[in-house]
Design goal:
The complex is a heterodimer of chains A (about 550) and B (about 425). By secondary structure, chain A is an alpha+beta fold. Chain A has 14 helices and 20 strands. Chain A has three domains: about 220 residues, Phosphatase 2c, domain 1 (4-Layer Sandwich), CATH 3.60.40.10; about 100 residues, Phosphorylase Kinase, domain 1, CATH 3.30.200.20; about 180 residues, Transferase(Phosphotransferase), domain 1. In chain A, about 35% of the residues lie in helices and about 20% in strands. Chain A has a six-stranded antiparallel β-sheet, with helices on one face. A five-stranded antiparallel β-sheet of chain A has the order 1-10-9-6-7. Chain A has a five-stranded antiparallel β-sheet with strand order 2-3-4-5-8, covered by helices on one side. In chain A, helix 9 packs antiparallel against helix 10. Chain B is built from 16 helices and no strands. The radius of gyration of chain B is 21 Å and the shape is globular. Classes of the chains: A alpha+beta (about 550), B mainly alpha (about 425).
Chain lengths: ~550, ~425
């Protein structure tokens, strides 16, 4: 199996002449993760093999449905704890002793980060610059003659304490996961020498040394890093960041024509016969690591996130300064457009569905846009004079569920974002809702909010209050998207998208603290009656006086 | 929001208390020349030196000017010598200045008074010492409460206006300096025993470098905030310092009648002090309200409102010949809005400048002092040149309008770039 950046192989042989052994392994690409596992079942009976297989499958399956908000470390530790507990209790119930026992090594690679853990004596090695380093820790007794006695294993006790480790990987690194069958036969220098031939070559070599009669089940998984993480490569490039940029200046064949944003880091440029947009890193990024990180991330996102609602972007291979180039959209942004026109209901539905498609596209990468607002939406017209929308600004795209992101424009932020909650589908839906509200009514639902303000949110007026053309169902969708209370808001893109495309299914929206006359007309009229009676008495008194 | 309760068991209460007392005392001494200006002018006139309006303004504004600059100097002192040592040295200078004025008494000359005024600037710079010293002891989430308590020393100027003229009447104006010196010595002794610098286990010093100042001065926002604070704080100390001179020059007859009718007080200077205290009190006490308002509705919106109100009210004072009570009400409202604007500016500064807050407080505070000096000099010049305050007030109103325009000019940029780049809260 291979991908652009990672190649992996796995191979296992049973001991002696047996058909199946007690070892089990698996390697899978799950989203942006590569997960590799080797387990070595303990004991002579079939329970060891079963434990190895089930542990492997348990971990792989759980990684497939891992809650996105969990860190890799938390996932690894929790999944190990849960399979340990399952196997231990099952053993106690069925055999009254620990029979379902296995060792475990797991390695998870995400970008340039390696996360790993082991329980028992199966090992993880990292091969770099011709040297082999053991990353795992053998849970085995030190005393001579007892090397095979494990001090830790999955399923042996109620609790397990895995040895957890992390590392950074580089281009050409190789990672080896293996059972003790392999390293007991092959010396480190042979492993070192032959690792590049892959897992099956290693296991077969071991088998050959033992004259095809292995003493123990022997398993290896080899992961090869073909390409360093692209983000890291970009980050490490030594590039100039210009302090000032001038009209007419030429950079790598692009002529600067005029700045597009007040900070003068985004320019309209001209090369050969075409116009483009160039965005430069801010000058502070020279000293400020965090700023540089942000810019590199932005450029990398711009380059890799290809979809028809984003401008096409490239990072020229031969650039001499830190910038990236984007396709130029002709036309105006939605904010500008709203300054002189209101959009139609049909256009607003098109806008909503474009924003939702973009959000659904990003969430596949575990990303969110983070700054959805009219200024970041460009308008184009198709042949039938219908509006088409493109989304710009890669600068605030960030990992979903991150809490440290500063991204966003206050007026478009969900209330819970002001108290430090993480960015999520529902907070993005809120921004989409505010954008729709503003586009259809020209007003912010909760007023314009400044940076560093702790706003108070009061129920917004229905958009139809300002724009009579808005149908009831769309009114309800927008109100449900901008609900102050998270509970009342859509929690997933799919929900709002479904309602948007099925108007007949939309239920009317009521705010939680609806006014008394809506909630309880009875009490309302009773109080009104009392009040009117008093007023009448007062009037009678005044008349008679 | 952290409250007073949370302070229990945290930090060092004696230091917090002494920081408050030291700051209150300093503020009182710093602004002492304002309420005594008319008495001093009369005394010097007896010895043949009739002060011009410009000279009075210079005398009243000099402590504010030297205080503004010394703030930055003492800020470095805190880094090099520690807060306590810096505080003790500057208190010594202040005590010596006060004693000089007291001992020379009636025979003092204008020139010596100017030197005393410079010395009093050390008291005005107490901002840069007392606030960080109290702050060092406490964790970040309690900083707001702690600085609020220590900063309540602003009220010192009100105390001046209430008591200084009466003391001057009974024992002579120079005895106010004597009383001040006696109190300052008591505070000095108490401070020497009770206040402590935070040990390194509690607070890790992060010395400021000249380079950091340079870097911040390149940031345009630094200049805008300096202008905003030069107007709000400068307006506050400027009007406070000049309040008595202004009231005496403009409403002496009204105040005289009021004093005899209501307080049975024949000394109009005492009455002027009371009215001055009333207006200044509004500015001092409403500062936190301004901060809260900015927090709720946004700093930019609230500054528009406060500055707008100030510009309108100041123009009104300049152009309309208001009856006495209306004039006092307008002055009261001007001071109230300036006080709230102070709070609003300082709701924004920490969030905009994050880790550079220490240096920014120094720079912005310095600008505030310079603004106050400029305001007093402008009012003095207006009276001296045109015989009235109309021109001076109009100039101030014009500067406020520039600031309002400035807010509109920069707010779009703030709105788009603050969140990501400031590294602060959203």
């Amino acid at each position: 199996m291979a991908s652009e950046t990672i190649k992996y192989t796995g191979f296992s042989l049973a001991k002696g002449k047996e058909l199946t052994g007690d070892d089990f392994y698996d390697v899978k690409t799950i989203g942006e993760l590569t997960v590799a596992i080797v387990c070595d079942g303990v004991g002579s009976a079939t329970e060891g093999a079963q434990a190895a297989k089930r542990t492997t499958q348990h971990l792989i399956n759980n990684f497939k449905i891992r809650p996105k908000s969990w860190s890799i470390e938390k996932a690894i530790k929790s999944f190990i704890a849960s399979i340990n507990s399952i196997l231990y209790q099952e053993s106690q119930l069925n055999y009254e002793s620990s029979e379902l026992v296995t060792t475990l090594t797991i390695v998870v690679i995400q970008g340039n980060k390696l996360f790993g853990a082991n329980v028992g004596d199966s090992r993880v090695y990292l091969h770099r610059d011709g040297k082999l380093n053991q990353l795992s820790y053998d849970h085995a007794m030190d005393e001579e003659g007892y090397e095979n006695v494990l001090t830790q294993a999955i399923g042996i006790d109620k609790e397990v304490e895995p040895y957890y480790f992390e590392n950074l990987v580089e281009k050409d690194d190789k990672i080896l996961l293996c059972s003790d069958g392999l390293y007991n036969v092959l010396d480190p220098d042979i492993l070192q020498e032959r690792i590049s031939y892959g897992a099956s070559a290693l296991v077969k070599k071991a088998s050959k040394i033992e004259n095809d009669d292995l003493l123990d089940d022997t398993t290896a998984v080899v992961i090869e890093i073909l390409k360093a993480d692209e983000y890291l490569t970009l980050r490490r490039q030594k590039l100039e960041i210009p302090q000032t940029l001038k009209k007419g200046q030429e950079i790598d064949g692009y002529t600067l024509i005029k700045p597009l944003i007040q900070n003068e880091r985004t320019w309209l440029v001209h090369k050969k016969t075409k116009d483009y947009v160039i965005k430069f890193a801010s000058f502070e990024a020279i000293e400020d690591e965090a700023m540089l990180d942000l810019f590199v991330k932005e450029a990398w996102n711009a380059k890799r996130l290809k979809a028809n609602f984003f401008p096409k972007a490239v990072i020229p291979k031969t650039r001499t300064m830190r910038y990236y180039v984007m396709q130029l959209f002709h036309g105006e942004d939605l904010d500008h457009y709203l300054g002189h026109k209101q959009i139609t209901i049909d256009d607003s539905i098109e806008l909503a569905s474009t924003l939702l498609k973009m959000s659904q596209f990003l969430v596949k990468y575990d990303l969110v846009h983070g700054d959805i607002k009219p200024q970041n939406i460009m308008i184009a017209k198709d042949d039938d004079e219908n509006l088409e929308f493109k989304i710009i600004d890669f600068g605030s795209i960030t990992e979903i569920f991150s809490t440290d992101s500063q991204a966003g424009t206050p007026s478009f932020l969900a209330p819970e974002r002001f108290i430090g909650e993480s960015i999520s589908e529902t907070t993005e839906i809120f921004s989409i809702g505010v954008t729709l509200y503003l586009s259809l009514t020209g007003k912010y639902p909760y007023g314009e909010i400044e940076p560093f303000q702790n706003p108070t949110f009061k129920e917004a007026k229905a958009p139809s209050f300002y724009n009579k053309n808005i149908p009831n169902w769309l009114d309800s969708i927008i109100l449900r998207a901008i609900a102050i209370d998270e509970e009342q808001r859509y929690s997933h893109y799919s929900e709002i998208y479904y309602e948007l495309t099925h108007p007949e299914k939309v239920k009317p929206y009521f705010i939680k603290n609806a006014p008394l006359i809506e909630k309880s007309p009875h009490i309302f009229y009773k109080r009104a009656f009392t009040l009117m009676t008093l007023v009448n008495f007062a009037l009678i008194y005044l008349l008679l006086k | 929001m952290a409250g007073f309760k949370d302070l229990k068991g945290q930090g060092d209460a004696p230091t917090l208390f002494m920081a408050f007392l030291y700051f209150d005392m300093s503020f009182m001494v710093w602004t002492m020349l304002g309420p005594l200006a008319s008495e001093i002018a009369e005394a010097l006139a007896l010895h043949g030196h009739i002060l011009t309006e410009g000279e009075i303004a210079t005398l009243v504004s000099l402590p504010i000017l030297s205080g503004a600059i010394l703030r930055i100097v003492l800020g470095f002192g805190v880094d090099k010598l520690g807060a306590k040592m810096t505080a003790l040295i500057s208190q010594m200078v202040v005590i010596l200045s006060l004693i000089t004025a007291y001992l020379m008494g009636e025979s003092i000359t204008y020139e010596v008074l100017l030197i005393v005024a410079l010395g009093l600037g050390f008291a005005g710079a107490a901002f840069a010492v007392a606030l960080p010293q109290a702050g060092q002891w406490y964790p970040p989430k309690l900083q707001g409460v702690v600085l609020g308590i220590a900063g309540a020393g602003n009220i010192g100027v009100v105390i001046d206006f209430i008591f200084a003229p009466k003391i001057a009447e009974i024992w002579g104006w120079y005895s106010v300096f004597g009383v001040g010196a006696a109190m300052a010595i008591i505070v000095f002794i108490a401070y020497a025993f009770l206040a402590k610098d935070a040990p390194s286990s509690v607070y890790k010093a992060n010395p400021k470098k000249l380079k950091d100042y340079g870097k911040l001065l390149k940031d345009k926002d630094t200049w805008w905030f300096s202008l905003f604070y030069a107007i709000s704080f400068g307006g506050f100390v400027g009007f406070a310092g000049y309040m008595k001179v202004y009231l005496m020059n403009t409403y002496q007859a009204d105040m005289s009648a009021f004093g005899i009718d209501i307080f049975n007080e024949e000394n109009v200077k005492v009455i002027a002090g009371y009215f001055g205290a009333l207006c200044i009190f509004a500015g001092a006490i409403l500062r936190p309200i301004g901060g809260n308002t900015a927090d709720k509705v946004g700093g930019v919106k609230s500054l528009y409102f406060f500055y707008g109100a100030v510009a309108f009210l100041v123009t009104l004072t300049a152009l309309v010949d208001l009856p006495f009570y209306a004039a006092i009400l307008v002055l009261f409202l001007i001071m109230a809005n300036l006080g709230m604007a102070n709070g609003a500016v300082f709701q924004l500064v920490p969030q905009r400048f994050g880790k550079d807050i220490g240096i920014m407080t120094g720079l912005v505070g310095c600008a505030g002092g310079l603004g106050g000096t400029a305001l007093i000099k402008t009012l003095g010049w207006s009276k001296g040149t045109f015989g009235g305050y109309t021109e001076g007030f109009l100039i101030f109103a014009a500067v406020v309008l520039v600031a309002i325009a400035g807010i509109s000019f920069v707010k779009t940029r703030w709105r788009t770039t603050w969140g990501v780049q400031a590294g602060g809260r959203i």
